[in-house]
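User: Fold this; tokens only.

Assistant: Input:
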Amino acid sequence: MNLNHIREQFPTLKQKVHDKELVYLDSAATTLKPQCVIDRLTKYYSDEVSNVHRGIHFLSSQATDYFEDARRTVQNFIGAQSDQEIIFTSGTTESINLIANSFGKQYLNEGDEIIVSTMEHHSNLVPWQEIAKVTGAKIIECPITDSGEIEIERYKELLNEKTKIVSICHISNTLGTINPISEMISLAHDHDAYFVVDAAQSIAHTQIDVKNLDCDFLVFSGHKAFAPTGIGVLYGKLDLLNTLPPYQTGGGMIEKVEISNSTFLNAPERFEAGTPHIAGAIVLKTALDFITSIGFEAIAEHENELIQYGNERLNELKDVNIIGTAKSKIAVFSMSVDGVHPHDMGMILDQQGIAVRTGHHCTGPLMSRFNVPATTRASFSLYNNKNDIDALITGIEKALKLFKD
């Protein structure tokens, strides 16, 4: 699938870095923004800026309509039953912290177990560690194979009557592994455990239907799906959300306030205290519409071509070791390169205009699992092509030659 015409819609790619054409291979950290997203953000701040809800003047009513229309767009994009199940947050990190502090703190007790996997991003690990300290619950690690896949049989063994919450990434930000999330949710529910899906990496790569998945919660960030930073989503089953205490309190989520006591609105308002990221939500709609206009089938076909070509080219380099070789994955290549530290590799590639990510990628336990301090990660999106892979290979070869010499 040739998506080169899509590439033209991303103005960031029209610049040079260190006098070289920019090759952007850091989409797992954040995606570039298409012109339609940039234009929509500008239009809001130029012509439409106003606070939402409760305002009776034109601009406020209009902004409220756009804001709530964005909520309905998210609902339809992920297949939620009701727009009341869509809560706007600042991103995946806040969404998981909200679940942990509101749901986890209320639901967990001494000796209960929370299952996470070795490949989790710190945002889907540290919040659970902190809640475990407060409640007396235990963190249980589900291991992964050498190829970077969930050990599904071990997962089945770990599930028991003490398992209360399972929180797993749909797709690994470091490995690109696509986890068998539907099967894992079903298995967790067989043990009456609740399931949280970290969809930060999957939201722009694969179709999500929360009704079919039957997950209890799902979270993602807009900035990994062509939208601005600072906007994210928490999906939760409505009957579950309305049993939870608010994570933060303040204006906009109050039903009635007296000096000594307050009562709260139902979801989603209960979890959206204060002035929200109005522009972020409105522009998130534009970004999701952009994805829909291309279609996940075309995106998957394009990415599969990049995965196949990337594997072929990288495997030509005997000094490059790909970490994460799952059968089902997105176009993410984490590498260790013999004789070259990832940070050195990143700097050498940068001098050639190639943007990659180096470090532990907020997956410390995963680095320990593969006995590496860090990796060089090249992550692709729909605006990348085979020429970008060729440029990456040339850049790695220059780095190897430099260090060998």
